[in-house]
Amino acid sequence: MVIYLARDVLSRPIDRSADTSDLILAVQSLSTEEQSLLFERMNLNGDRIYSGATAFLKRQYRTIAWMTIVAAGLLAVLLLFYGANEEKGIEAGDLAWRTGVSFLVGAFLSALSGVIGMLIAVRTNVRTASAATRSLGDALTIALRGGAVSGILIVGLSLLGVFGLFWAFGGFENPKHTPELIVGFGFGASFVALFAQLGGGIYTKAADVGADLVGKVEAGLPEDDPRNPAVIADLVGDNVGDCAGRGADLFESTAAESIGAMILGVAIFKATGENDVAWILFPLVVRAFGAIASIVGLLVIRPGRVRNAQRALDVGYWTTAVLSTVGMAIAARVMLTSWWFFLAGLIGIITSVIFVYITQYYTGFHRPVRDIAEASRTGAATNIISGLAVGFENTAIPVVVISVALGTSFQVGIQAFNDLGITVGDSQWIAGVFGTAVATMGMLMSAAYILAMDTFGPIADNAGGVTEMSEAPGDVRDITDGLDAVGNTTKALTKGYAIASAALAAFLLFSAYLETAGLKEVNLAKVEVFIGAMLGGMLVFLFSSLAIRAVGRSAQAMILEVRRQWREEPGILEGKVEPDYARAVDISTRSALREMIAPGLLAVLLPVAVGLILRAEAEAAMLMVGTIVGVLLATVMNNAGGAWDNAKKYIEAGHLRDADGNAIGKGTDEHAASVVGDTVGDPFKDTAGPSLHVLVKLLSTITLVLAPVFI
Amino acid sequence: MVIYLARDVLSRPIDRSADTSDLILAVQSLSTEEQSLLFERMNLNGDRIYSGATAFLKRQYRTIAWMTIVAAGLLAVLLLFYGANEEKGIEAGDLAWRTGVSFLVGAFLSALSGVIGMLIAVRTNVRTASAATRSLGDALTIALRGGAVSGILIVGLSLLGVFGLFWAFGGFENPKHTPELIVGFGFGASFVALFAQLGGGIYTKAADVGADLVGKVEAGLPEDDPRNPAVIADLVGDNVGDCAGRGADLFESTAAESIGAMILGVAIFKATGENDVAWILFPLVVRAFGAIASIVGLLVIRPGRVRNAQRALDVGYWTTAVLSTVGMAIAARVMLTSWWFFLAGLIGIITSVIFVYITQYYTGFHRPVRDIAEASRTGAATNIISGLAVGFENTAIPVVVISVALGTSFQVGIQAFNDLGITVGDSQWIAGVFGTAVATMGMLMSAAYILAMDTFGPIADNAGGVTEMSEAPGDVRDITDGLDAVGNTTKALTKGYAIASAALAAFLLFSAYLETAGLKEVNLAKVEVFIGAMLGGMLVFLFSSLAIRAVGRSAQAMILEVRRQWREEPGILEGKVEPDYARAVDISTRSALREMIAPGLLAVLLPVAVGLILRAEAEAAMLMVGTIVGVLLATVMNNAGGAWDNAKKYIEAGHLRDADGNAIGKGTDEHAASVVGDTVGDPFKDTAGPSLHVLVKLLSTITLVLAPVFI
User: Inter-chain contact B382–A523, Cβ cutoff 8 Å?
Assistant: First the structure.
């Protein structure tokens, strides 16, 4: 499927001038020579982005590879010394090498899916731009299929990796401990995701903020102007942040959450005594159904029928949701023999649908965005205050929805086991947690579709950049602008989905940790546990601070470089000499890779230190409170950032009116105020917020893997 | 003492022109007539502030009184139905009326200390202004003594109230349940504090932001210009926010924390079997020593010896700290017969000293503030990003310091009981918690001194306003400006102190709740407990959002009123007609009182709802995680707000320089950017942040009081 889609996308010729009959109006009126010049320019700009992206990928993954190897070694050594557990019959050496290998496999597959997905994305952008000379449907389909390569690859490789390790480590012969032996896979994936998201997030906003501050504000250039040396870095940045970063984020989500559910499955497997591996493999089967549903949802969208891009994506999403429901019903009934589990899964599917609409409400032109736009009337300060108030407020509904989903799926889980007459452990706790696990799996079924929409975002954005830089006729740009706007929504939506699934899965992952560490409780009334909890909350704030500062410093480096190029070669600003795009890309790359180290190390080392000094229960509190605070703060930053961005767009679209009813648009004080808000929101929504998703999950996997050491 | 200080302050004549010999230079050179005109103007402006403040107080406390009576009734009814506890021998009717009465007494004394303290403060400001015509020492002493009335009154009434109820409810005959019967006192105090701080916080920033946006930005008037109709409301606001609000905050802190410690004392009292009420009364005795130490510290500062205001306050503070240490040593040795308890208390005293210096670092002209000022070079957006990053980062050291203080005092507590050979309960848990309680008491010993410095802030600020509006000579204004700058530091410092004591006390109050509710654990691994925890975190963000929005709406009302006055009476702006100050005060008052209802109700009702639906253990998790998140977010908002404010002052003081080394001061783009940051910080540091202090403690007292209902 992936290969089919990738070949489908890559086989599209960029030069479509051969048959002019279906070119859109303005391009038709160009002479054949002008047409081929246009496509030549598109190709050139596409190549620039491609080589910028590969340069970044090469250097980033080289850095990550080294760190991964060191981490794998340290991990194996730690487990070799402390990992033995006679009670469970786990031998230290065995645990150490298997965890080390799982870690490396997880890291490798996460990196691989990120790299391939991104290479396809940066080849798709120029093809989308070219397709936009023909029709909206064409452009949308190509961009979405390019995104689908990423989506399906990520979900597929995570599924294959978990299943492959389970099988290779003898899961079918002796399933009891196998999931605990492969938790390293999740940690490896999180480890890579942390640095991929941090590095990508810093890179993208350093380039974006740098390009904007020096280009738009200082020199008065429009967006994506080719005279701005940072413009290619900015376009590359959209890919490395949204595509590679979020891809790695969801790769580890699906992996870690499957493994967590499998660990619970083992507890049930043991309790039933019937040697039925269905309990352990159920999560993987459900997700396979989800992947199929997503593929169908993606293929439902056909170029000829597209009138409205957002509607087309909605149809695909609903198709995926309905098919996921059917798949869940089959898996629950056949494998687990109870409709109650289907109900639990349905709760997860419904939660994911609700979150899609919550995000649309927050980031669409509704009350929150309008409030911020209105506040821009009294200046930048009130715009910022209003945006922060909106961001803070926006934690309420998601928390309530997640609470309801958790509570009900927990009860449904208990009901299911009562129904089946199975008792697990001395309380109904594991039964309830398994209910939440099924709900989490239900939520993750549409992951491939959501990821395809997410990667669609930077592809559409880049297509717009290529169109602009290649001086294509206005109506081509209109098409890519439309796709870009839809892409902004889908990017915001993926963040909402990622954080909601993280929150829902958090309880499952805690439970897996408690199960692995043999803890019966996490008692906040103990002083060291309370301290662990406080440090968990603090970690989230400190990590965010480091991520935000990293953007500031990297943007500064970019600004200095752009100023240097303009000063040393005045011809650039006159449009006579081409700027040195590669050097700007290089500056961003170096700076982002340097700056990702400090927050990355903090995220890895503080949990390890707390676990070693305050031990397993305090670690659990750190994990739980860190997760709660992380989910809250990520929601604040993602939604405030998205709302600021759209408040600016709301004003640019002329919706804000003065006393006489005239539109207040670009160039006004109100617009300037909204630009300040948008700039503040950038590192929030594209660096710190998404990095917190990964931090939250890293906390889970790191504690799961090192549980034997913390006991 | 209070009466002595109040009479001392109020007896100072405002008209000091009779003997010109010690007037400062510029005033001496005025003719006698000019001098008496100056003092007449001062008197007039002082009266305006006084009547604005009393108008607000009257209306605010009338509203609060009604709500308090309703709340007391509901509380009594709830306890009447659910409060019985046969095991402990508590009868529902008895509990209901005693809690209701304690609630009313706590509410009344909190309100009383707030009102008297503030009435003295708004009489002291004009006397400080007048004293500034003589010498720095004179002005400082009067302002500080005016503040001392508040500080000593608050600490004294809280002490008297707790002791009086303990005695009246038969604490000496049957001490076992008395502390549980008087927890209502703490809740009453928190209830009033919540609305006092919210109402005051909204009022002060609505007036401030409103006055600035319309006065400085739109009309280009300087600060405190008499042509601005909002100027009196702004000066009144400083009092109602910092003086009445923070006073109520610390009144409930000291009350609730004493009661919490007494509840633990009861557990020890029961365990020793020696009928020694020393364990129960120890917190009150320590605080009495602290009050004496503070009084001595305040009296050490004598007009003649003052050269530098900050240094004088430092000397007083260190005197208080040293005397507190002596008092703690005596109390620990004589009452509890172990030096280990002295060590625990010393940890608390040291923690309070450390926090004073941490706050000075964050809000002084050090790296954090310099970073923000530097970021202003690239505009408002980078200023804001940098400020938020600083705010996020600033959670780290406080959390670490509190963790260390908690951990060590817990260990010391265990050591102390081992040393005495006393075993409480089946674990050493209560022993350790008592250690943290002693540390908390140690920290709170300097409360009266800190409060005096806090109230000093608005008095100095107001004195500056009176001086400006009365057109006093420049060197008088220099003195009040100097005091105002010191006042900004002391205000920030009180916030740091308040939040640190809240964090340190949090563990103690949780423990008192667990003791009262008969809970042995707070197990986050239970789904309803985890949901309670998530809701606790969410409450903090939602509450902050409501508080911030309230400021926005109230400021808007103020802006419209000022514009209306200028439009309808153009003579105001020309300085010919006096604006209608009273109406602006009235608008602020109404608006603040209306806007405080929503966040206030949320803060009271959500914990009650969680307790009733999810029960006692989930409530405990809500309390704990709400406290952790509240402490973190309050620290972020207080410190970011303070740092933004001082980054502006840093630029105004000419410390930021351009490439040629010239100072970049007022009127530049950099300064404008820093003003945006300052405005954003205003509702953070003066409304939402301080209100979170109260929220955190309200969570503790509400759960303590309603514990019987939640079981």
Answer: no
Question: What is d(CA B703, CA B184) in angstroms, rounded to the nearest whole number?
Answer: 11
Q: Which residues of chain A does B679 touch, with a Cβ-Cβ cutoff of 8 Å?
A: 379, 381-382, 385
The whole-angstrom distance between B129's CA and the closest CA on chain A is 32
CB half-sphere exposure, B88, CA atoms < 13 A = 23
- Give me B650's structure tokens: 């840093």
Q: Which residues of A touch B213 (CB under 8 A)?
A: 378-379, 382
Tell me if B534 and A402 make a contact (CB, 8 A cut-off): yes
Task: For residues B142-156, give the mean pLDDT.
Answer: 90
- The whole-angstrom separation of Cα B259 and Cα B178 is 10
Please list, residue by residue across A225-244, b when 16 or more beta carbons sit within 10 angstroms of its beta carbon and e when fewer do.
Answer: bbbbbbbbbbbbbbbbbbbb
State the pLDDT at residue A19: 59
- Which regions of B309-377 does DSSP assign to beta strands (E)? none
Each residue's pLDDT tens digit, A191-225 = 999 999 999 999 998 888 888 888 877 777 887 88
CA distance B360 to chain A (A): 20
Q: Are residues B385 and A680, on separate chains, in Cβ contact within 8 Å?
A: yes
What are the chain B neighbours of A552 within 8 Å (beta carbons)? 375, 382, 385-386, 389
3-state SS class at A274: coil
C-alpha angle with apex B489: B484 to B494, nearest 5 degrees? 120
- B416: Cβ–Cβ under 8 A, 6 or more apart, which residues? B336, B338, B340, B341, B344, B431, B434, B435
Compute the count of residue pairs across chains A and B with CB atoms less than 8 Å apart.
223
Q: Does B3 touch chain A (CB under 8 A)?
A: no
Whole-number Å distance between alpha carbons of A656 and A376: 10
3-state secondary structure of A90: strand
- Helix B339-363 to helix B309-336 angle (10° resolution) is 160
Which structure tokens are listed for A476? 């081509």
Mean of pLDDT over chain B: 87
Please tell me which of the candidates A511, A523, A549 has its beta carbon nearest to residue B389.
A549
Mutate to test the interface with A, among B538, B542, B602, B684 (most CBs of A within 10 A): B538
State the number of CA atoms in the 13 A half-sphere of A555 facing the CB: 30
What size, in residues, is chain A? 711
Task: Of A403-412, A520-529, B262-271, B585-594, give the range with the top mean pLDDT.
Answer: A403-412
Say yes or no to pLDDT of B407 above 90.
Answer: yes
**Neighbouring residues of A603: CB distance < 8 A, sequence distance ≥ 6:** A194, A539, A543, A695, A698, A699
**CA A446 to CA A425: how far, in whole Å?**
32
Chain A contact for B692, CB < 8 A?
A: no
Q: Assess whether pLDDT exceeds 80 at residue B685.
A: yes
Nearest to B240 by CA among B107, B67, B103, B58: B58
Residue of B nearest to A404 (CA): B531
Query: How far is the C-alpha of B434 from the C-alpha of B428, rounded, in Å?
Result: 10
Distance of CA B568 to the CA centre of its chain: 39
Residue A521 distance to chain B (closest CA, Å): 5
Phi, psi angles (nearest 5°) of residue B90:
-100, 130
Higher pLDDT, B4 or A425: B4
Tell whether ipTM is more than 0.85.
Answer: yes
Q: In whole angstroms, give the CA distance from residue A90 to residue A98.
A: 11
**Is A511 in CB contact (< 8 Å) with chain B?**
yes
Confirm if A370 and A651 have CB atoms less than 8 A apart.
no
DSSP letter (8 states) at residue B573: T
For residue A683, which residues of chain B lie inside 8 Å, CB to CB?
385
Residues of chain A with pLDDT under 50: none
- Which of A700, A698, A691, A705 lies closest to A599 in space, CA to CA? A691
For residue A469, the distance in angstroms to the closest alpha carbon of chain B comes to: 27
